[in-house]
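// run 5 | inverse folding | seed 20
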């Protein structure tokens, strides 16, 4: 009786899931194959929907190694000729590529989410080596972060379809796939995003003046970058570096507004920001940058 109920349950699953599952027919039962014991409507690979009885079916989900192989192969043929190198990945990561041309750093990263089907979640990172060097200088004098361990990476910002759509719920931007054909379509979109969004983004924000306008404009002075579509690493220190390298004539005002932004953030979470505490990286950086740069 239990076995019969189990088969009925599987059959119901097949019927309810017919709109988004690919199902393949097989000749014998081995796990995770299942047998349909009464008439039900199933979608056979290829798109045809018909009724069958007493047949064996298998859910046609791709597995992560297969996804990793396809993504790596397709993007290698596109990115390697552009000077990128493939980075070995493990765990949740699917594929990663990077390029460093001495002045700038570029990176592609991707992982998968899986619900009933997969999502390929991806984005591109961008770094300006001069900014990263100065961040490391400041970090030698005053740690850029307290508490948890951190690392100053080669990128300072980036862009992705997810954050451009919604920084609070970025996964909504990524399509679902369950077949190789659907994945290949998404990878063409990755290439399109790289060429038409990421490359122009890097060309524009490789200029300090443009970055300075973005985050330090008095008309729209960023309090933080957490809620923005373009994140900035170590934001409240990096913005000061950018202002200095851009030769912003209002540097002292940027520093003052940066303090007010920090005071606002600390107050929001029940704290008090001390702008006279030289152990704070923003306080040290404000003076250090003005004296040295």
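// decoded
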């Amino acid at each position: 009786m239990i076995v019969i109920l189990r088969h009925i349950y599987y059959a119901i699953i097949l019927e309810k899931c017919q709109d988004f599952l690919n199902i393949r027919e097989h000749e014998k039962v081995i796990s995770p194959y299942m047998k349909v014991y009464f008439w039900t409507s199933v979608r056979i690979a290829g798109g045809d929907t018909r009724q069958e009885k007493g047949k064996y079916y298998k859910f046609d989900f791709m597995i992560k190694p297969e996804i990793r192989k396809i993504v790596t192969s397709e993007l290698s043929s596109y990115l390697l000729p552009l000077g990128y190198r493939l980075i070995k990945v493990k765990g949740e990561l699917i594929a990663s590529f990077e390029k460093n041309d001495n002045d700038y750093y570029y990176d592609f990263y991707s992982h998968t989410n899986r619900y009933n089907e997969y999502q390929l979640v991806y984005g591109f990172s961008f770094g300006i080596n001069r900014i990263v060097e100065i961040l490391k200088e400041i970090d030698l004098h005053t740690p850029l972060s307290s508490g948890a361990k951190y690392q100053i990476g080669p990128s300072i910002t980036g862009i992705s379809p997810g954050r451009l759509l919604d920084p609070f719920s970025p996964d909504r931007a990524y399509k679902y796939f369950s077949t190789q054909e659907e994945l290949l379509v998404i990878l063409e979109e990755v290439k399109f995003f790289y060429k038409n969004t990421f490359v122009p983004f890097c060309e524009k924000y490789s200029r300090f003046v443009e970055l300075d306008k973005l985050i330090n404009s008095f008309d729209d002075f960023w309090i933080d970058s957490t809620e923005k579509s373009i994140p900035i690493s170590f934001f409240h220190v990096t913005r000061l570096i950018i202002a200095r390298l851009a030769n912003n004539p209002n540097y002292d005002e940027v520093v003052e507004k940066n303090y007010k932004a920090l005071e606002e953030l600390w107050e929001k979470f029940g704290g008090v920001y001390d702008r006279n505490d030289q152990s704070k990286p923003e306080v040290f950086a404000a003076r250090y940058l003005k004296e040295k740069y």
